[in-house]
Amino acid sequence: xxxxxxxxxxxxxxxxxxxxxxxxxxxxxxxxxxxxxxxxxxxxxxxxxxxxxxxxxxxxxxxxxxxxxxxxxxxxxxxxxxxxxxxxxxxxxxxxxxxxxxxxxxxxxxxxxxxxxxxxxxxxxxxxxxxxxxxxxxxxxxxxxxxxxxxxxxxxxxxxxxxxxxxxxxxxxxxxxxxxxxxxxxxxxxxxxxxxxxxxxxxxxxxxxxxxxxxxxxxxxxxxxxxxxxxxxxxxxxxxxxxxxxxxxxxxxx
Length: 254
Ligand SMILES: NC(=O)c1ccc[n+]([C@@H]2O[C@H](COP(=O)([O-])OP(=O)(O)OC[C@H]3O[C@@H](n4cnc5c(N)ncnc54)[C@H](O)[C@@H]3O)[C@@H](O)[C@H]2O)c1
What we know:
This protein has a single domain (7-246), classed as NAD(P)-binding Rossmann-like Domain (Rossmann fold, 3-Layer(aba) Sandwich). It is built from 8 helices and 7 strands. The protein has helices at 16-27, 39-51, 66-80, 105-133, 153-173, 191-197, 202-212, 222-233, and strands at residues 7-11, 31-36, 56-60, 85-88, 136-140, 179-185, 244-247. It has a 7-stranded parallel beta sheet with strand order 3-2-1-4-5-6-7, sandwiched between helices. The longest helix has 29 residues, at 105-133. It is globular, with a radius of gyration of 17 Å.
């Protein structure tokens, strides 16, 4: 019960890695507020975990909209009486492979606004509450924030930005007792990756999976990312702030 009596807000918590984070946090004793666009999945997850004895609330939220994020943070604080942990997991990949000169400007803006601006907005509105609780932020970046992956410049730029934002918050808020860290997943079997691969023929998908897989030689499961997030959200990592931890099967090590 590493998050006993803790309250957490998880963006993107309705599906994929975010869903695994929500499930693990509840197992570890946290009360969890899910902020996501995916209403049916988010509502069903909150109902399932509440029926099993947890306290989980879903609010439909678009992380790109400042007023929506502000209301969600406020609602979480009102429901739970404060906020200890913010996890920024909501994110998207680009819809296709693009050379930068062909990148549609709307696609660049879409990726940046969800992945980077969404993370900024949630941090922006949660920080006053995290200062009160001496809480922490865990941002889900990507190995694409540490190194360049081919033909997804907007995604790489957005995730590098998330790592930079994480370090800036760590530097500025350590004196308030607030920590901020990032996890950088490698390819993980989730709806996001399935949707990305669905745009390509099967033989290309196989080559892509090989190209993205590190020395461990397989894609990861969402629970393997969730466990790293739990570590960074708990007091087990009390001296860690401003870190970007690769959870990528060794991809960025070689
Ligand atoms: N799956 C991977 O291989 C992988 C690898 C590295 C990093 N990541 C990162 O992990 C995070 C989770 O990815 P995933 O694979 O679980 O994806 P996913 O698509 O399975 O889940 C992402 C969630 O974010 C939500 N979301 C998207 N846009 C939103 C918005 N504007 N407002 C609120 N919620 C929104 C979606 O509804 C969804 O529930 C993302 O930030 C992603 O970039 C994933």
